[in-house]
C-alpha cells in the first residue's frame, strides 16, 4: 500500500488495544449535542437558537413538540461530513449502514427502525428528503453533502406531513439558498491515503429580482484497503457533485425556486474484508476459530490477517449517475400561502461487486438499476397568533428497473477436479421492473387551547399501487461450459395498499424557555416485493414472490425542552414507546443442501416493540467554550416470529433484538475559541461518539455482530480577523479503532463472511477562502 507522510504519523494502533480510560473520561467531558448549532460565530454567553422546518414552516427547534436533531452547514463542514451516511456518527439512536459500501444504497435505522434489505427496489421505513423532495430510489439516498444550510433528523413516525414510508422517521437535507449579497467560497483539503477534497460556492444577486447560487464538490482518494493481489489500494473515491439554485421574485407575492443538481461516482467499488468459516469443504468451523481468522472459504482460501487487506480480482468501476431538478413556487395571499413543489429524479447505477473478496471466482454479482421518479406536492398554509394550519396533496410516480447477474462457483473445477462444477457452477440473471404510483392527502393544525397550552391534530390518507414484473434466467455448467441461459421463472405481481394515519400532541409552556409535550402518532409503510435473486428451486420461488404486507406503528412520546440560566444551558429529553404490527424484515436464509445457494426472503414479523430515552445537554459556561452531550438508550424486541422457506427449515426469531439497534449511543463535541492579539481566531474542537454492541441481521447471528466502540475526532483551525482565510488540521478516528459498518453471512455454501470495514485513522490539512 502506498503511504503518505500523514499515514506514517497516523498509523493505526495495534488490534485489540482498548481505549484508555483517561481518554474516555476527558472526551466525555468535552461532548457536544448532535443538535448543537455551529460554533463558528458564537462569541456571546448564550447558546444560539436553531431554526428548523420539521413541520414545513420555520420554527425554533425548542418550540417543536417532536424529537428533532439538527446540524447546520458550518458544523457539518467543521465535523468533516462529506457524505450523507456520515451524519449518524453525530446523532443519537441513528445508524446508517452501507451493506455494499460507499456510493450504494444505505440501510437507515432511526430508533432501531430500518429495513436491512440490500436490494435496490425496496425503500426503507425512514424517508430521505432533499429540499423537501423525497428520494424514492434507495440508490439515490446516499450522496455527497456540500453547501448545506442544515440537516434535520425527525425521530418517530412522520405520517402526517411527509411523503411516504416514514414509520421510523425522516431525514431532511436543506441546501443553502442564494444570498442577497455577493458571496464566494473555495475549500480544499489534503489528507491520508492521498485524499484530495475540493468544494466551492458562488452566490449573489443576478438582477433586482433574481438571485443565484452555484456549488460544486469533488473528492478523490487512493483508498485504505491494500490489495495484495496487484499491489493497488481500494476503497478510495472519485466523486463529483454540483448544484445550481435560481431564486426568482416575480412579484411581491409570487416567488420561484429552481433547483438543478447532479452527482457522479466513478471509482472502484468498496471491497469487503473476507473471513473464512470452513475447516474443510462443507465442514463449518467453530465460531471462536472463525473470529480468530483460522478458517477458509469453500475454495480453501484463507484471507490475510490484516484488517485492511485482501486479494481482489475484479477491476471494473462502480458507476453511479444521479440527476434531478425541482421547481418550487410560493404564492402569498392575504392570509394563505400556496406552495407547489414539482420534482424529477433520475438514477443509473452499475455495481460490479467482488462478492467473495478472494482471488478466484467463487461469487461475483453485478447490480444494475435505473430509476425515474416524478413527484408533485400542492399545499396551503395559514393562521394567526394562536393557531396555524396546513393541508395538501401529494403524488409520486416511480419507474425502477433492475438488471442483476450472479456468477457462483465458476472456478470449482479449477480448485477441485474437472467436472465437479457440472450442475453446480451457475450464471443467473434477474430482470425486473417495478412501477409505483402513490397518492396522499394530508392536513395538520395546531391551536392554543388555553394560555400556554397548545393542541396539534393531524391526519393523512395514503393510497399506493405497485406492479412488479420479474424474469429469471439460468445457465449451469455442462461439460465444462455454460450453455445459453434459459428461463427459470417469469412472474407478474400487483399490490395495492391504503391507510389513514393521524397524530395528536399537547405541549405546555411552563415558562417562556421551558416546554413539556406528549404525543401519539401512527405510521404506515406500504407493502413491497422481493427484488433480489430468486432460488433455483421453484417451490422457494413461490415463497420469495409473495409480497410483504404493509407495516404499521403506533408511537407514544413524552418529553421536555428547556433553556436555563439565561440560555447558557439547554436540556432536552424524550421517552418513547413504539408498537409495531407486521414489521417488514429481510432474512438471508442459508443454503439448505449441498449445491444450493442462500435464499433472500422478505417477511413480516407480526409484532415488535421499541422503547427508549434520549437526553441532550448543551452548556456554554464561558463565552469561548461550548460543551454538550447526547445520550440514547434503546430496547428493541420482536414478538412471536417464525420465518423461513417452508415447514422444515423455519427459524424462531421471537425475542430477538432488531438489527442496527445498539442499546446505548453517545455523541458529543467540545469547542474552545481563543482570540489572538491581532483579532485572529484559533479554535480547537473534539468530537466523540460511542455505540454499544449491535447485530447486523434479524437472526442475531454472533458472527454478524459489532462490539461496542469509540470514535474520536479533532480539529484545530486558525481564521484571520477579516474572516477571509481559514487554515485547519484535522484527525479522524484518532484512536485507530477497527470496527465494522455491516456484515453478511455467506457461510452456506460459500464459506465466508462479507464485512464492510469502517475507515481507519486518518488526518489532513485544509484551507478555505471566503469572499
UniProtKB/TrEMBL annotation:
Top-level taxonomic group: Bacteria
Every TonB-dependent receptor-like beta-barrel domain range: 306-734
Localisation: Cell outer membrane
Pfam families tied to this protein: Plug, TonB_dep_Rec_b-barrel
Signal peptide, first to last residue: 1-40
Keywords, ordered alphabetically: Cell outer membrane, Ion transport, Iron, Iron transport, Membrane, Receptor, Signal, TonB box, Transmembrane, Transmembrane beta strand, Transport
Record-annotated TonB-dependent receptor plug domain positions: 61-170
GO CC, one annotated term: cell outer membrane
GO biological process annotation, one example: iron ion transport
InterPro entries named among the record's database cross-references: Beta-barrel_TonB, Beta-barrel_TonB_sf, Plug_dom, TonB-dep_rcpt-like
Name of this protein: TonB-dependent receptor
Organism: Aliidongia dinghuensis
Name of encoding gene: fyuA
Amino acid at each position: 500500500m502506498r503511504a503518505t507522510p500523514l499515514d506514517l504519523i497516523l498509523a493505526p494502533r495495534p488490534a485489540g488495544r482498548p481505549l484508555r480510560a483517561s481518554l474516555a473520561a476527558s472526551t466525555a467531558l468535552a461532548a457536544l449535542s448532535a443538535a448543537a448549532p455551529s460554533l463558528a460565530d458564537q462569541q456571546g454567553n448564550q447558546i444560539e437558537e436553531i431554526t428548523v422546518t420539521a413541520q414545513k414552516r420555520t420554527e425554533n427547534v425548542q418550540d417543536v413538540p417532536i424529537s428533532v436533531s439538527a446540524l447546520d452547514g458550518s458544523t457539518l463542514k467543521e465535523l468533516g461530513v462529506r457524505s450523507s451516511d456520515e451524519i449518524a456518527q453525530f446523532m443519537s439512536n441513528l445508524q446508517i449502514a452501507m451493506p455494499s459500501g460507499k456510493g450504494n444504497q444505505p440501510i437507515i435505522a432511526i430508533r432501531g427502525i430500518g429495513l436491512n434489505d440490500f436490494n435496490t427496489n425496496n425503500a426503507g421505513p425512514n424517508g430521505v428528503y432533499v429540499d423537501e423532495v423525497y428520494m424514492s430510489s434507495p440508490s439515490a439516498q446516499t450522496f455527497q453533502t456540500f453547501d448545506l444550510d442544515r440537516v434535520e433528523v425527525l425521530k418517530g413516525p412522520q405520517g402526517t406531513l411527509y411523503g411516504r414510508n416514514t414509520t421510523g422517521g425522516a431525514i431532511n437535507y436543506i441546501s443553502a439558498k442564494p444570498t442577497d449579497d455577493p458571496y464566494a467560497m473555495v475549500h480544499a483539503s489534503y489528507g491520508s491515503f492521498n485524499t484530495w477534497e475540493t468544494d466551492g460556492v458562488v452566490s449573489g444577486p443576478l438582477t433586482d429580482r433574481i438571485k443565484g447560487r452555484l456549488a460544486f464538490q469533488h473528492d478523490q482518494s487512493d483508498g485504505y484497503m491494500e490489495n495484495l493481489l496487484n499491489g493497488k489500494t481500494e476503497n478510495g473515491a472519485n466523486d463529483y457533485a454540483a448544484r445550481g439554485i435560481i431564486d426568482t421574485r416575480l412579484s411581491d407575492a409570487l416567488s420561484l425556486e429552481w433547483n438543478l443538481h447532479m452527482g457522479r461516482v466513478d471509482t472502484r467499488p468498496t471491497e469487503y474484508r473476507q473471513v473464512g468459516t470452513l475447516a474443510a469443504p462443507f465442514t463449518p468451523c467453530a465460531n471462536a476459530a472463525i473470529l480468530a481468522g483460522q478458517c477458509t472459504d469453500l475454495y480453501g482460501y484463507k484471507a490475510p490477517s490484516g484488517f485492511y487487506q485482501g486479494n481482489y480480482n475484479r477491476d471494473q468501476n462502480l458507476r453511479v449517475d444521479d440527476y434531478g431538478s425541482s421547481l418550487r413556487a410560493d404564492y402569498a395571499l392575504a392570509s394563505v400561502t400556496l406552495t407547489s413543489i414539482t420534482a424529477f429524479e433520475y438514477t443509473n447505477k452499475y455495481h460490479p461487486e467482488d462478492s467473495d473478496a478472494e482471488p478466484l471466482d467463487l461469487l461475483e454479482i453485478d447490480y444494475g438499476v435505473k430509476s425515474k421518479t416524478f413527484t408533485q406536492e400542492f399545499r396551503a398554509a395559514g393562521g394567526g397568533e394562536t393557531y396555524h394550519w396546513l393541508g395538501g396533496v401529494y403524488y409520486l410516480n416511480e419507474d425502477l428497473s433492475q438488471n442483476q447477474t450472479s456468477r457462483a462457483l465458476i472456478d470449482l473445477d479449477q480448485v477441485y477436479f474437472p467436472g465437479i462444477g457440472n450442475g453446480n457452477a451457475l450464471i443467473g440473471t434477474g430482470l425486473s421492473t417495478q412501477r409505483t404510483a402513490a397518492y396522499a392527502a394530508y392536513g395538520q393544525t395546531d391551536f392554543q387551547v388555553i394560555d400556554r397550552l397548545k393542541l396539534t391534530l393531524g391526519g393523512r390518507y395514503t393510497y399506493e399501487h405497485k406492479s412488479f414484473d420479474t424474469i429469471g434466467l439460468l445457465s449451469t455448467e455442462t461439460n465444462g461450459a455454460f450453455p445459453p441461459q434459459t428461463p427459470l421463472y417469469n412472474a407478474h405481481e400487483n399490490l395495492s395498499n391504503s391507510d389513514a394515519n393521524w397524530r395528536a400532541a399537547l405541549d405546555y409552556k411552563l415558562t417562556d424557555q421551558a416546554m413539556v409535550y406528549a404525543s401519539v402518532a401512527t405510521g404506515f409503510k406500504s407493502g413491497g416485493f422481493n427484488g433480489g435473486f430468486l432460488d433455483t428451486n421453484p417451490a422457494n420461488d413461490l415463497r420469495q414472490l409473495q409480497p410483504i404486507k404493509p407495516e404499521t406503528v403506533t408511537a407514544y412520546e413524552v418529553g421536555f425542552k428547556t433553556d436555563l440560566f439565561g440560555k447558557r444551558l439547554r436540556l432536552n429529553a424524550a421517552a418513547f414507546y413504539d408498537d409495531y404490527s407486521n414489521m417488514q424484515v429481510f432474512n438471508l436464509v442459508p443454503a439448505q443442501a449441498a449445491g444450493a445457494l442462500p435464499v433472500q426472503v422478505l417477511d413480516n414479523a407480526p409484532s415488535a416493540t421499541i422503547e427508549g430515552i434520549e437526553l441532550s445537554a448543551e452548556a456554554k459556561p464561558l463565552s469561548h467554550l461550548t460543551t454538550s452531550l447526547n445520550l440514547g438508550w434503546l430496547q428493541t424486541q420482536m414478538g412471536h416470529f417464525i420465518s423461513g422457506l417452508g415447514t422444515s427449515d423455519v427459524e424462531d426469531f421471537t425475542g430477538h433484538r432488531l438489527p442496527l439497534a445498539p442499546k446505548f449511543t453517545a455523541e458529543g463535541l467540545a469547542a474552545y475559541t481563543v482570540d489572538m492579539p491581532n483579532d485572529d481566531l484559533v479554535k480547537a474542537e473534539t468530537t466523540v461518539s460511542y455505540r454499544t454492541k449491535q447485530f447486523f441481521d434479524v437472526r442475531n447471528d454472533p458472527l454478524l455482530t459489532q462490539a461496542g466502540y469509540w470514535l474520536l475526532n479533532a480539529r484545530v483551525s486558525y481564521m484571520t480577523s477579516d474572516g477571509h482565510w481559514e487554515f485547519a488540521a484535522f484527525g479522524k478516528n484518532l484512536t485507530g479503532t477497527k470496527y465494522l459498518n455491516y456484515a453478511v453471512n455467506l457461510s452456506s455454501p460459500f464459506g465466508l463472511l462479507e464485512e464492510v470495514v469502517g475507515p481507519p485513522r486518518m488526518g489532513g490539512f485544509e484551507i478555505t477562502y471566503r469572499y
